[in-house]
Design brief:
Layout: H1 3-8, H2 16-31, H3 47-67, H4 70-84, H5 94-112, H6 118-127, H7 130-139, H8 146-158, H9 167-178, H10 188-205, H11 210-221
Helix pairs in contact: 2-3, 2-6, 2-8, 3-7, 3-11, 4-5, 5-9, 9-10
Length: 223
């Protein structure tokens, strides 16, 4: 799941460090795909660092439930098939595109149906002390925190997730993710065709997309 989908499950929490933890694995991956941390079983004397670890573990659990759900398997596969025909000549693997596309569509739906408040999400991140974040990263084994903290500051400043309200920006986000692997993944024609497919697919999901969140919430109560 993407940032806002992870935030959805704990949108009412008052602990900014826990909120940060729920999205931190993806933030780190976006900052530098070579950063690999495993803080899952660590315990720190600072409760704020431990809150980040707890949020991190929640992220892993939500992703586990999401990626094994029939909803994800069905819709990522269907999007793979539909998008494959729109990207003829592109080096991007359609299964990768389908996986990312359904996650971005879900974030768009959470915003456009009023299920999450993007400003509230960013306010949580703004409330976290950078020294605590650096302490977590060092404790988890990251020797140089400079790259991530620079990326994180820009992530907060840009308020980029607000753009997910617009479908062409969802396509753009999809393109940017693909560019981490393929330098020039799509032509303008590919972009336009993908936007049309994503728009139509979103319309088909809007009335029933909450089922995946309800399913995961139920599983979380059983843990």
């Amino acid at each position: 799941m993407n940032f806002l989908s992870h935030y959805y499950f704990d949108r009412n929490t008052a602990n900014c460090y826990f909120t940060l933890g729920t999205v931190l694995p993806d933030l780190l991956k976006n900052a530098d795909k070579n950063i690999i941390l495993h803080p899952e079983k660590l315990v720190h004397p600072d409760a704020r660092v431990n809150a980040i670890i707890k949020g991190w573990n929640k992220h892993l659990l939500v992703d586990k439930y999401f990626h094994s759900a029939d909803f994800f398997l069905t819709h990522s596969h269907q999007l793979k098939l539909e998008l494959a025909s729109a990207i003829t000549g592109s080096p991007v693997k359609p299964f990768f595109l389908g996986h990312i596309a359904i996650e971005l569509i879900l974030d768009n739906l959470l915003i456009t149906t009023g299920e999450v408040n993007v400003d509230a999400f960013y306010n949580h991140l703004d409330s976290c002390d950078e020294a605590v974040i650096a302490a977590f990263l060092s404790f988890a084994g990251l020797t140089d925190t400079t790259t991530f903290l620079k990326f994180y500051a820009e992530f907060k400043r840009s308020r980029y997730l607000h753009t997910y309200v617009n479908l062409p920006q969802v396509t753009y986000a999809l393109k940017r993710i693909c560019m981490r692997v393929w330098p020039s993944p799509f032509t303008p024609e590919h972009d336009a065709a993908m936007t049309d497919i994503i728009l139509n697919y979103r319309l088909g999901l809007i009335d029933g997309y909450k089922v995946i969140y309800d399913e995961i919430e139920q599983k979380l109560t059983e843990v």
